[in-house]
Write a structure and sequence with these properties.
The protein is of the alpha/beta class and about 290 residues long. About 45% of the residues lie in helices and about 15% in strands. It contains eleven helices and nine strands. Helix 4 (about 70-75) links the parallel strand 1 (about 55-60) and strand 2 (about 80-90). The structure holds guanosine-5'-triphosphate and magnesium ion. The site of guanosine-5'-triphosphate has 21 residues, from strand 1, strand 2 and helix 6.
Length: about 290
């Protein structure tokens, strides 16, 4: 039984898997010959001790052919426990096809191919459901365009391992920074943060941030059907909902870099969605929607 356990497991490094495979054979040999159950129990226990916690990094994509290969590689390089889920909206540039090819060489690459451009929020919700079903311990949100540095994934993970339920890669706390943004974009983003905080009282300095690590239990306890926003407001609503449910949010300083390759998918509607959306959220909280 324990043998099946670790054959199924994708969480152990290959070297450890081999060592424990032989270890288990020895144990079962002992079990059948000497009927010493204690050895088998010891084996199960050992495996539990060395089991790495699994991480799924969700990356929504729409026309990211220039970034897709390198971002997947950079995430997987963070360690054996990291897997990546691309949620692609049938990108006309063939991003999804590239992922399908990469999948043949590495089983830590997952793909959800959707029929068309359905928006960032619904892409993440589909990814969350996937991560919950596959029982990943930690589930991340990350952009494909290298604005979020894959090397920061482990710092977000550490914050969750040390007590946070949701760790947010934050540009607007001490140590955080933004590189290569125009003044207008900076003012818009920082202004949005102040607006959100003044209306919702959310104790987060970067409420529109999209580089996040969740403990699985957070996503399991939210009713994901209640999340309706699709742009930046989606990011605000996730934090507001989790906070309203009593989860502990922590901010980790990151340096955000403007995309170098590919095109932005931002559009003007995002601003009006956010202005009205935040007021709607406040109302919803008052009426118990997020309890
Ligand atoms: N699946 C999916 N992904 C999307 C959609 N819109 C944007 N994305 C992805 O979401 C991530 C963030 O989008 P960006 O275009 O970088 O948006 P942004 O970061 O607000 O804009 P820039 O700062 O200009 O890059 C990227 O990985 C996009 O490819 C969508 O409708 N569906
Ligand atoms: Mg971007």
């Amino acid at each position: 039984m324990d043998c099946q356990f670790f054959l199924k497991s994708h969480l152990l490094s290959r070297k450890r898997l081999v060592v424990y495979f032989f270890f288990n054979i020895c144990i079962n040999y002992k079990l059948y010959n000497d009927k010493i159950l204690i050895y088998s129990l010891y084996c199960i226990n050992k495996i539990r001790i060395i089991k790495l916690e699994s991480c799924l990094v969700i990356i929504p994509t729409y026309n990211e052919i220039e970034n897709i290969h390198s971002i997947i590689r950079a995430v997987l390089q963070q360690g054996e426990q990291f897997s990546v889920l691309i949620v692609d909206d049938n990108s006309p540039d063939g991003t999804g096809e590239v992922v399908e090819i990469l999948q043949k060489t590495e089983n830590r690459i997952h793909l959800l191919q959707r029929s068309g451009k359905l928006g960032l929020g619904t892409a993440y919700i589909a990814g969350f459901r996937y991560g919950i079903n596959k029982a990943f311990d930690y589930i991340f949100e990350m952009d494909a365009d290298f604005s979020h540095n894959p090397d920061d994934l482990k710092r977000l993970l550490k914050a969750c391992q040390e007590g946070a339920d949701m760790a947010i890669g934050s540009r607007y706390i001490k140590g955080g920074d933004i590189k290569n943004w125009s003044k207008d974009r900076l003012v818009l983003s920082y202004g949005a943060s102040l607006y959100v905080k003044s209306i919702t009282w959310l104790p987060v300095n970067d409420p529109t941030a999209g580089f996040i690590c969740y403990k699985r239990k957070v996503l399991e306890s939210l009713d994901l059907d209640k999340i309706k926003f699709i742009g930046y407001t989606f990011q605000i609503e996730m934090k507001y909902y989790a906070w309203s449910k009593g989860f502990k949010l922590a901010e980790v300083p990151i340096t955000f870099v403007d995309r170098e390759k590919g095109n932005s998918k931002m559009h003007a509607n995002i601003v009006s969605e956010a202005i009205k959306g935040v007021l709607k959220m406040r109302w919803r909280k008052m009426t118990g929607y997020y309890s």
